[in-house]
Amino acid sequence: MIRYHARWVLPMVAPAIDDGTVVVDGARIAYVGPRSGAPPGDDVELGDAILTPGLVNAHCHLELTAMRGFLEGLHFREWILRLTTAKRAVLTRDDLLDAARLGLEEGIRAGVTTYADTCDSGVAFDAMLEYGVRGIMYQEVFGPDPGQCEASMAELAAKIAALRSRATELVRPGISPHAPYTVSDRLYVAAAEFARANGLPLALHIAESQAESDLVGAGDGAFAPGLRSRGIEVRPRARSPVALLQQLGVLDERPLLIHVVRAAADDVTAIAAAGATVAHCPVSNAKLAHGIAPVREMLDAGITVGLGSDSVASNNRMDLLAEAHVAVLMQGVRHGDPTALDAKAALRLATIDGARAIGLAGRTGSLEVGKDADLAAFPVAGAAALPVHTPEPALVHAMHGRDASLVVVAGRVLLHDGVLRVAAPPGVRDRVQSAAGRMQAWLAEHGQAGALVPPGSPTR
Amino acid sequence: MIRYHARWVLPMVAPAIDDGTVVVDGARIAYVGPRSGAPPGDDVELGDAILTPGLVNAHCHLELTAMRGFLEGLHFREWILRLTTAKRAVLTRDDLLDAARLGLEEGIRAGVTTYADTCDSGVAFDAMLEYGVRGIMYQEVFGPDPGQCEASMAELAAKIAALRSRATELVRPGISPHAPYTVSDRLYVAAAEFARANGLPLALHIAESQAESDLVGAGDGAFAPGLRSRGIEVRPRARSPVALLQQLGVLDERPLLIHVVRAAADDVTAIAAAGATVAHCPVSNAKLAHGIAPVREMLDAGITVGLGSDSVASNNRMDLLAEAHVAVLMQGVRHGDPTALDAKAALRLATIDGARAIGLAGRTGSLEVGKDADLAAFPVAGAAALPVHTPEPALVHAMHGRDASLVVVAGRVLLHDGVLRVAAPPGVRDRVQSAAGRMQAWLAEHGQAGALVPPGSPTR
Question: Predicted ipTM?
Fold first, then answer.
């Protein structure tokens, strides 16, 4: 038994504990409470730190970590076209794997223990196994042309079979039909049926951009000409992206809905009625200028909302406490009310609600006896964190996740005193920086003028 | 001569320099350019770091650092009443001085070399002298009752005389009539005349909240009943807070206007026509739910805009790179355009434009030969910063100011390799945390129910 002692312990499903202790027995939590009542064991003194459940990143793209800072100042369609094109033209599978490793190193240092990762290449699965974190890798599937549907599904089935054979207690596959501008109605229906038949979790990017809403609602907007030029029929498909999922029956599979920025009251009602969940990505949504998601409205409707960093291609960081901070600021602005989302609620989004949103709340997201021991500790010793009046605002508004001093997943220590305990391969940082150099060279030669590859092209 | 070498140098008034060098001769910059062309001197290798001008905080309240996290989830009027009441009831001058010291330690660690501080007690002046930073302390003056005007001005004149006798090349006084809900029209006019007669810079909180706009425009809103209960006449004073300053002639003094969230097109035009400047505080404005300032509009109108942290009572941090980050996110949301404010422009707000806004651009805010050597370096070695494609987005979107490895003011090293070189008195952190404990005890006993002291009460 290991006893982790900290000045503050935040179980998330119970009030904060001053001078608290979490006792870990193997992979599980055996005690959460005041230090004075803890059962015996070996002591780990975390000192003036805030001990929380390991943070849950409800949406990321680990394979894109080499794109941090590569796609600045671009409107959404240009952003995604340059992303797709550069990824195919420059980055090898090894590059993508190193990128995912660097992303996990960043995430672990920021106290993130669970990753809901949406991935095209599949490397996030390897990296998560390698680094010992918990996660779901939602295998992406593309195909805006209904004629691609069978080929896309065959490819998906093969990938899922391979992933399932390597799944562990910690790392499991899911599937992700990418977005309305890269997925036909046929493919949405087929993917949802496949998910149901195989008991796989489903995640999809939805209601993110104005361009997406224009495409779905009016058969128009920034994405329409490119699709038409590929011979794909473009017509109004539904009142809104969320309504499209509803009418196709996809919403009945209770998917994780990523973004949900452009959702009207009836969309929120539909999501709540279906029991679907949401991954809220406030920094990415603001940086790409999509807007502020109706988080307060979704919470009031009873929808479970987690927090996601999205990829560092649009963030440019993975720091769930910073995400919680920006979530509070944005909801304050949206509602003209400083109480619209408070620090405690934002921390719940980053922990227990995120775990619920991706179906892992039985294992992680809170400090409760019997749950897996997924822990993160954040020291408050720095001038920038002091004084601490109450721990939740200190974590969300004054500190940031990169301060983690301890990270534990299912009882295993991944980081302690700022030192990674993961047997990561050497040279990852240098290789990712080198890949960035090749991307810059490609950009200088081809990026501005060359033919851009739309996402979901059949040659992928 | 000292030669500071870094992987990237950002002069701010010229393009970024790869493998650049800044040479410092005494207090001044003697060279800015490629390493290969630098004159001889002693070498300081900053390695994989981004070397920038020292950051300029265009608005802070150092004396309030003990209030970090003390005023959460409050609407603006309750926020400011609790702030004022707790400050008077609990914090001694020594407490406020320690708070200012802790604030400067935080700021220096975040690369901030220049502080435009708005202060009631005067402790910020002492602390800035002690820590060796550059700054203007705008002495606050209050008085919503026109009958208080002479007494307020007499007190102000005495304080300014004392401050001027202690002014240095680095630290100078200014004056700050607080805000329309604490300053009568008479006091505004008297303070502006005093500033002009004494050659003092002027800074004022303006157009921050809806409550303020309601008071000025309609003689109504959250602040009106409290003023009336004190026998102070409340009536519509002007179309808007900015228009009030215009009609009183205060705008002609080209003050630093703090906040300017609620400014219509004619307000922006008036500010530009007068040549007044603006301190933009995006985190504070969002956290207090005031809204998003029209920064793009002000820049387009030719207004000089700097970035301020505001106090940590409403932020809860002093980190100008984080402020630049949130400024970009908020302008993206306000305009639905990811190019509304880019990382380069945001960095200018945090450096040269901030220096211009407070009238110190002849000395600081950019890396130029002949200017004072105010420098900050931010290492990019951490997983969270890599890869770096271009330095400006890395600084603004992936890193944060707390990463500073070197801070220099007028040639003097205040921080190197993360170690403060300032002869700060011992025990500051413990004493500020202890003051926070007394504030919590006061809050438990009096805070929710007791009589709250309005800001600008004559007993102060």
Answer: 0.96
